[in-house]
């Protein structure tokens, strides 16, 4: 029983990490119709921003409020970089899909190279509060606190995004834009501001994933964002492009499947099963779990 509880909670922790990355991807594609392959860069900016702030920012550190301040610095850095990327590189390329892909892929590669040139290619030890390195007893299972932190953070982000989309003016614009961008534009609403805001929100969520992922893994490296981005794209496709709730469902499915199969099967079998799940969803329900079927 304790093994099942441990695998379930660690799987949910992994799912939470995937969701934090995938939520921004889903929003960006749903509103702006942009496949942002540079999204992993925002995660790396958040991770390295938190790592740097914990050592150099006055008042920040690896304990208590100092760690919260370091994470906040990383999240703000990720949001600012995401907004700048949208304004400078993506905005001139809307409706030009091939150019978008080329630019975002190139930016992702350039970002990794810049991080390697600045701080080296080797993983760096990540500053972690002492309590995140301990475990909590849950029904007889010793569950790492870092995984529980991810679950709480992902639940808070999901709730915040849903409340924002439902009860704020810009949230209503984004929801309407996801449903019918042409109609929103025809009503005289400038959706470009919403595009920038969505990129900033997605960048902040990815940066938070980078910061908490550093706590989870215990280190940070330049290529960390790219490896997590692969599974985030899988989550977005399975959940339904543009659906944040669908991404949450898909992240849980992917995280649990990966964790259980890797434990009871051979190493790496979980990744294979995740790809198999993606193929099944694309064959049986191409629009994803919560996506809407395309109409002629």
Automatic annotation (TrEMBL):
Q: Which compartments does it reside in?
A: Cell membrane
Q: Which GO terms describe its cellular component?
A: plasma membrane
Q: What is its main location?
A: membrane
Q: List, in alphabetical order, the Gene Ontology terms for molecular function in this entry.
A: transmembrane transporter activity
Topology in the lipid bilayer: Multi-pass membrane protein
Q: Which UniProt keywords apply?
A: Amino-acid transport, Cell membrane, Membrane, Transmembrane, Transmembrane helix, Transport
Task: Report the Pfam families cross-referenced here.
Answer: BPD_transp_2 (PF02653)
Question: By what name is this protein known?
Answer: Amino acid/amide ABC transporter membrane protein 1, HAAT family
The similarity comment for this entry is:
Belongs to the binding-protein-dependent transport system permease family. LivHM subfamily.
**InterPro entries per record:** ABC_transp_permease (IPR001851), BCAA_transport_permease (IPR052157)
Transmembrane region(s): 65-89, 101-119, 147-165, 194-217, 229-256, 263-284
Any one biological process term the GO annotation gives: amino acid transport
User: Source species, please?
Assistant: Micromonospora pattaloongensis
